[in-house]
Amino acid sequence: MDDLSDSSQPDFDHLFKLLLIGDSGVGKSSLLQSFTSNNFEDLSPTIGVDFKIKLVTLGGKKLKLAIWDTAGQERFRTLTTSYYRGAQGIIMVYDVTRRETFSDLSDVWAKEIDLYSTNPDCIKMLVGNKVDKEGERVVTKREGIEFARQQGCLFLECSAKTRTNVEQCFEELVLKILETPSLLAQGSKGLRKDIFKQRQPETISSSSGCC
């Protein structure tokens, strides 16, 4: 993982801000952990907001991804809304074994994106996590595809535990950002410094967790 003090160094072509949202316990933090460190941990719920840095090379470009992991609990909701600001990519995560986490996508999370996202061209991805628990599945893949179509989202199912499709989730999202001129321009300049100076309410305690 890259050190934040290096954020001003010209070691990348573009810097993108990505945001993970969804109910508590759907596996957002585990998904992020699996992507950034190539291992799986069953993590406790995130308190406030956490984030990690990942350097990747995609589309012939060196990219620095600042990935923000938000708490899913309702009591943290007002603290995390500011993190939508400036995000070029947003990943909505649900648990295929818990119907309520899928229902909350339309009842809560899609509405939050509409309210707080500042990028009209922001790329959205819908991710159904925990497909390793196929025997406990209650949300079908077809339902996920249909909701993604309605919302204009990319869609994938994955397992943070087995790492199935984990890298593809982030790579497909980032490749789509690279194809979007307005987002590409943002990643080349303004956010390089500001992305690490996210205004945090004093009550936020940043900590690793399972979402």
UniProtKB/TrEMBL annotation:
GO biological process: protein transport
GO cellular component: plasma membrane
InterPro entries with a match to the protein in the record: P-loop_NTPase, Rab, Small_GTP-bd, Small_GTPase
Domain of life: Eukaryota
Subcellular location per the Swiss-Prot or TrEMBL entry: Cell membrane
GO molecular function: GTP binding; GTPase activity
Pfam families: Ras (PF00071)
Entry keywords, A to Z: Cell membrane, GTP-binding, Lipoprotein, Membrane, Nucleotide-binding, Protein transport, Transport
Recorded topology in the membrane: Lipid-anchor
Keyword Protein transport recorded: yes
Function, in words: Intracellular vesicle trafficking and protein transport.
Family named by the database record: Belongs to the small GTPase superfamily. Rab family.
Protein name: Ras-related protein Rab-18
Organism for this UniProt entry: Stephania cephalantha
